[in-house]
Write a structure and sequence with these properties.
The protein has helices at about 10-25, 35-50, 65-75, 100-130, 150-170, 190, 205-220, 225-235, 240-255; strands at about 1-5, 30, 55, 80-85, 130-135, 175-180, 220-225. By secondary structure, it is of the alpha/beta class. It has a single domain (about 1-260), classed as NAD(P)-binding Rossmann-like Domain (Rossmann fold, 3-Layer(aba) Sandwich), CATH 3.40.50.720. It has a seven-stranded parallel beta sheet, sandwiched between helices. The longest helix is centred in the middle third of the chain and has 29 residues, at about 100-130. Bound molecules: NADP nicotinamide-adenine-dinucleotide phosphate (NAP).
Length: about 260
Amino acid sequence: MKTTLITGSSSGIGETFARRLAAQGENVLLVARSEERLATICNELGREHGVQAQYVAMDLTTEGAGARLFEESAKRGLEVETLINNAGFGSMGDFVKLDLETELKMIDLNIKALVDLTYRFLPPMRERRRGAIINVASTAGFQPVPFMTTYAATKAFVLSFSIGLWEENRPFGVLVMALCPGVTETNFFEAGHIDKPPMRTSQTPDEVVETALRGLKRGKSHIISGWSNYLLTESERLVPRRLIARVVGSALRPRYQKDSDK
Ligand SMILES: NC(=O)c1ccc[n+]([C@@H]2O[C@H](COP(=O)([O-])OP(=O)(O)OC[C@H]3O[C@@H](n4cnc5c(N)ncnc54)[C@H](OP(=O)(O)O)[C@@H]3O)[C@@H](O)[C@H]2O)c1
């Protein structure tokens, strides 16, 4: 049975992908840790749209999670035609004062789980000469972001990894695309204890998902959601990275580094 697998689909952008795709008649397999929430969403989607909406409740940072998810989807007879690697979180603060376990977990989720799932689900897509993988990166992946350093670096990885795979897999009819949202109204900020950047317009998850589906149709390697995010990201490419880091760092330093730290 043809299915779209969406990680991090218990809330925010992932949940919105699930709702939008189910409304288009696609079967979905939802993955996140919050079992009750996933069960509620699946019941709703099945009832409202008559699709097969299933879930696997799991922590994708646990050892062997990717293998277990791949086996589970095969056991259920699902053909994953689209994989949306969306689960992710961030953190904010002076790197040396952040919790190391959390930083490493972020790398496990934002990078390791994404690579693991891509590695497992891509070969069957290539064999079928059909399929798509959307990896959720961020506008933070285009440049270093001091005081969100690990997060921005994980998203730089996702962006580079996805564009590389976009080119490798074009001859096989499989599209790999990085989706780069800017500030989006979700649980992301609360989950990571992150301050919303001032003076940045935010988007709704619906707008972000709309952008992703447009990018998919056009066969894009990566797509930035929102015009102002696009213009800001593109204009920053002309500025030395060090200068961007200095500007962002200067704005955030008073909040995260005290004179007494020096
Ligand atoms: N919101 C923004 O401004 C923004 C901007 C750019 C990029 N993004 C990216 O967009 C993606 C989705 O985030 P969001 O904004 O929609 O935030 P969100 O509402 O907090 O969603 C994060 C999702 O990831 C799941 N998740 C977290 N840890 C997990 C784990 N260990 N194992 C499995 N699932 C896990 C969460 O579910 P459970 O807690 O139930 O596990 C939730 O479904 C992330 O990759 C984020 O980096 C967000």
